[in-house]
Write a structure and sequence with these properties.
Blueprint (H helix, E strand, L loop, with lengths): L1 E2 L12 E3 L30 E4 L9 E4 L32 E5 L5 E11 L3 E10 L2 H4 L5 E7 L2 E8 H8 L5 E9 L3 E11 L7 E10 L21 E3 L1 E2 L6
Parallel strand pairs: 2-13
Antiparallel strand pairs: 1-14, 3-6, 4-5, 5-12, 6-11, 7-10, 7-12, 8-9, 8-11
């Protein structure tokens, strides 16, 4: 295992950069099916709404198995063997052995959960894990990806090439932060992926979470607010070396 804190240069990310954190032991995840478990139905997208840019997307967003076995799309990442997400940073849920996979060369795909119920005002930890496959990273065209939880942007206008160049490929990374909710109600989780041309880079998402309280960290990190209006967000990075395929 290796730990590091890094600034996401070139990415419009409002965040406080923190050292690697730990999972919320015993916490209940308020995101339903944040691990994209096919056993819950809808081919792994139970509790999620998936929208494809009809007539423009070249491949749909799908849920694929993460068992380090190479499979062709739509059951795999175009031959890439994707390792299971065994991280314990951020959210309380272990991976189901599956993850959401975005790979369209053109057009936009969105993934949304609209029923995250916040019953009490307070601070909530939010986040998700991402993985950039090495074979997709080698594709000539880029893609953009964004992730927003409870209306708070953790990744905004982020290119896959930026994520891969900073954190490496074939590596699960936890992107997390905190946000303060003043008004109880129903909030959303939103992801968006847009391919820039054939063939474009791709990305996977797993372990999406919202839990009460703040992420535990061993020591405070440096403050690097790169956006406006977003306070107290954090990027928690824990890298696990993977064998490149």
């Amino acid at each position: 295992m290796s730990f590091r804190t890094a600034t996401l240069a070139g990415i419009a990310l409002a965040a406080t950069l923190l050292a690697a954190g730990t999972a919320h032991a015993g916490a209940i995840n308020l995101v339903q099916n944040g691990t994209f478990n096919p056993a819950l139905g809808s081919s792994g997208f139970a509790d999620w709404t998936v929208n494809q840019d009809a007539g423009h997307t070249t491949s749909n967003a799908v849920v694929i198995e993460t068992d380090n076995v190479g499979r062709s799309y739509p059951t795999g990442a175009y031959g890439q063997a994707v390792a299971n997400d065994s991280l314990t940073t951020g959210g309380p849920d272990a991976s189901s052995g599956y993850a959401a996979y975005f790979s369209t060369d053109t057009g936009t795909q969105t993934l949304m959960q609209q029923t995250v119920n916040i019953a009490s005002p307070g601070t909530y930890s939010i986040g998700f894990d991402v993985y950039v496959p090495a074979n997709g990273y080698a594709n000539p065209n880029d893609a953009s990806f964004s992730g927003s939880v409870l209306g708070t942007s953790l990744l905004a206008s982020t290119t896959i090439s930026s994520i891969g160049s900073i954190y490496g490929t074939n590596t699960w990374v936890t992107i997390a932060g905190t946000t303060t909710i003043a008004t109880p109600g129903t909030y959303t989780v939103d992801f968006s992926f847009t391919g820039d041309g054939s063939t474009a880079k791709d990305i996977l998402v797993d372990r999406v979470f919202v839990v009460p309280g703040t992420v535990a960290v061993p020591e405070p990190g440096s403050l690097a607010l790169l956006g406006t209006g977003l306070i107290g967000l954090g990027l928690i990075l824990r890298r696990r070396n993977r064998t490149r395929v």
